[in-house]
Amino acid sequence: MKKNLLLAILVLFVAVNYAQNPGATPTQPSFMVIPSDALLEKLSEKDNYEYIKQIDNQGVKVIIQDYQTLFIKHPEIKQAIAMIGELFEQEGFNETPLETALKRVQQKQTVDKAGFKGSDIEKSLLQEILQYAKADIYIELTYWFVPEIQLPDRQINFMLEAKDAYTGKRVGTASMGESEVTSEINIVKILKSSILDQIDFLKSAMNNKFADLRENGREIYINVQISEEAGFDMDEMFGEVYNTLADILTEWTRTNSVAGNVSPDGPYDYEFNFNDVRIPFYNSKNNLPMNAYDFIKGLRVFLIKNYGIISSTRSTGLGSARLIITGKKN
Questions:
Q1: Mean pLDDT across the stretch 163-177?
Q2: Which residue has the higher pLDDT, 196 or 74?
Q3: What distance in Å separates the CA atoms of residue 209 and residue 290, rounded to the nearest whole number?
Q4: Which of 59, 111, 137, 299 would suit a FRET pair with 179, their CA atoms being 20 to 30 Å apart?
Q5: Rounded CA gap, 172 and 209, in Å?
Q6: What is the number of other CB atoms lying within 10 angstroms of the CB of residue 137?
């Protein structure tokens, strides 16, 4: 009886501890599988339909991917993505399906339009999806035929490229050699056979990246701008010791990044960029994965509390954020 009671208490303790520390247990990264932009471009040319295009929205170049139509016209790609996701889940990785994230983003866009909210002009659809999914890594699928013309004995090549969801930097690549096919229906079957030979390499690369993120922090990019209405530039002095705004921004970013890892680009008169900023893996306030927007909010609060500097923040991607300084309190 006592043994059963102790066991019940232990199980309850573990469950409560997991609920309170959801970020303490994962040992492998979360991921999402997507068709690569290169694949979308190739199929756009083949089908004479724009699965991917670049638009100019108020001077900002934005990439738009039409995954929904792609999956309708090429169901084999949807099947291949589901199969790849299943293979990695069997290896212990946690998948956020592309279709699930896509539906959520589309719902958000519909609500934003209905509420007359301004569009997020700086984000591509992929950036929106990654920000919703909050995956650590995304895996791009590319395949091509050799020769490209329709022949019964043509061959097919595959490539899977894992990338950091915050930076887009390459984590690892698995390339599959040429295999004979008789129709495009065989794509999923051939890919599964090929990736089983390569999955250990890609799995190792993804786990190594995840270990680096946990130890050294996630990598992000921060852009700080001063608006015209502010009436001052990066050389403006604040505080009792008369530090310049540029010095204040640099010091805060170094102090709050992991091991002071940051590569400043600037300062310029009205702009300052911080590249390769390593931020804590988890947000200490809620123990959830931290992103660039979470990090830069701390800077906004610091500036108004300590120097009366008024600013606003916005997310420009999972691993990038902007702070716009608009003035100072009288």
A1: 90
A2: 74
A3: 16
A4: 137
A5: 9
A6: 24
What sections of 119-159 are H helices per DSSP? 125-133
In tens, the pLDDT along 270-303 reads 999 999 999 999 888 878 889 999 999 999 999 9
pTM of the model: 0.83
pLDDT band at residue 185 under the 50/70/90 scheme: low
CA separation for the pair 45, 39 (Å, rounded): 10
Q: What is the pLDDT of residue 196?
A: 82
Do 124 and 138 meet the contact criterion of CB atoms below 8 Å apart? Answer: no
CB atoms within 10 A of CB 42: 18
Alpha helical stretches, state H, 115-186: 125-133
Q: What is the pLDDT of residue 246?
A: 97
Residue 142 has φ and ψ, to the nearest 5°, of: -130, 140
Q: What pLDDT is recorded for position 287?
A: 80
Helices 125-133 & 98-114 angle (0-180, nearest 10): 110
Compute the CA torsion angle 205, 207, 211, 213 (nearest 10 deg). Answer: 70
The pairing of strands 30-35 and 94-95 is: parallel
* Helices 75-90 and 187-216, axial angle in degrees (round to 10): 50
d(CA 98, CA 317) in angstroms, rounded, equals 17
**Distances in Å between the alpha carbon of 274 and those of 34, 262, 287, 289?**
29, 6, 25, 20
Of the candidates 272, 256, 291, the residue with the CA atom closest to the CA atom of residue 167? 291
C-beta neighbour count of 16 within 10 angstroms: 10
- Does the pLDDT at position 64 exceed 70? yes
d(CA 326, CA 304): 11
The first and second tokens of residue 119, run together, are 């569009």
Structural domain boundaries in the chain: 25-214, 217-328
SS3 210: helix
Helix axes 245-256, 292-307, angle to 10 degrees: 130
> Which tokens belong to 85?
């996701």
